[in-house]
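Treating backbone geometry as a discrete language has practical consequences that deserve illustration. The sequence in question and its structure tokens are set out directly beneath this paragraph.
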Amino acid sequence: MASPETVVCLFRVQAGKEEEFQRLLTDHWPTLRRLNLATDMPPQHFRGEEKSGEPIFVEIFEWASRQAAAMAHEHPEVAALWEPMEQLTEARDGRPPMEFPHVQPIQLHGQA
């Protein structure tokens, strides 16, 4: 059985486009889940600002597998969300508009 892959999505949203972006983000995980590309673990969402004051959004969720993450790039329903999301983001300070590091949980100080 394939192992889930946790991804931290960082979106550098253009100033003034926050509400439009948030509407798209609202549909992101439910679409991935419906297509069996994400696990049923609910995502976490955060909104903040860069040091410059420009808006950032963060979404953390689990891909069903590494293959699911790759398959998402080929699915038209996912593209219908990702393309407009990309149009609402921007590169800043030499960083890309969006970043998607995959991470694994670690145990610290005897935590269960």
